[in-house]
Amino acid sequence: MPDCFPTCHCIYSLFALLLVSGCANINLFSLISSHHHHHHHHMGPSNDTQISEFFLLGLSNEPELQPLIFGLFFSMYLISVFGNLLIILAVSSASHLHTPMYFFLSILSFVDICVTSTIIPKMLVNIQTQTKIITYTGCISQIYFSTLFAGWDNFLLAVMAYDRFVAICQPLHYTVIMNPRLCGLLALVSWITSVLNSLLQSLMVLRLSFCTNSEIPHFFCELNQMTQLACSDTFLNDTVMYISTVLLAGGPLAGILYSYSKIISSLRRIPSAQGKYKAFSTCASHLSVVSLFYCTVLEGYLISSATQNSHSSATASVMYTVVTPMLNPFIYSLRNKDIKGALRRSFRMAGTKGTIVLLVKKCP
Questions:
Q1: pLDDT value, residue 68
Q2: Taking burial as the number of CB atoms within 10 A of a residue's CB, which of 115, 132, 236, 305 is the most buried?
Q3: What are the E-state strand segments in 175-271?
Q4: Residue 172, CA atoms < 13 Å, CB-side half-sphere
Q5: CA 41 and chain centroid, separation
Q6: Please, which residues have CB within 8 angstroms of residue 88's CB and are 6 or more apart in sequence?
């Protein structure tokens, strides 16, 4: 693989993109507050019932469990952020990891940091200050970002499956097909689609009125839960949510299944068992992450639809909002000699630099 893959360059341009979308989001949030005041204004003094803040009930109401929940989530959040940062560090510092697979992995790690950062800090602050309050704007922004990053995560897993498909089924054309331009384009298209979808979902929530019920039986403002709280008609919201879920989750899942069916049929043609194992071992990490992501999301969905008990659905969504982003770095680094080697080297370099700095300071 030629060392021409501009991982760092692409990651920097993605950060620039995020800044740009950040500006768009600020516009969205100014729209939210103006829309909210507009609501107040229209309902008049007699019927002024639009709620301006919600209560996140969290995972448990037991006061003695709060320190335990805080400790657990705080440690999971730290592990998730540092683990994913280490993956990004390893990929950007080792030039032999500047390949499509690791480029997408570093974006996936970045998205995982964002997913947890959208949800967990607010929850920890609420436990610490012993309030359950989240503002209307805070709630819409949580819906926007959680939908955005969960969707992007999903697309990236599909793009990574396509990358493995090309690597195993067309190894001779791999570098030509998966060129830096295509990789940048795939990352960009998946990002734009996720942004448009989360904008649509957030704007759909903005048109709802919330009157009496302000308690969200969850630890963050989740799209589905918020829609259920509304006192206005939610038929259009449910329809849009359903269609976009089928298209934006079903599409990537179909792509992943197709890629792996091709990969398996291609592996069956490899005569030696060692060759089979070697080819499949490059997919094993990705397959583990995909299984974890889809199984936890499916579990959360099935539990929330099977039981009307929203407490159990909140517990189920801990899996895909916190546990999966925390486990991804472990899955990739434990199975992967390249990443372990790159991390060791970057730590050794950091150690050497530290020693040199200390020696220079000591010398008169």
A1: 92
A2: 115
A3: 215-216
A4: 0
A5: 37
A6: 11, 106, 109, 110
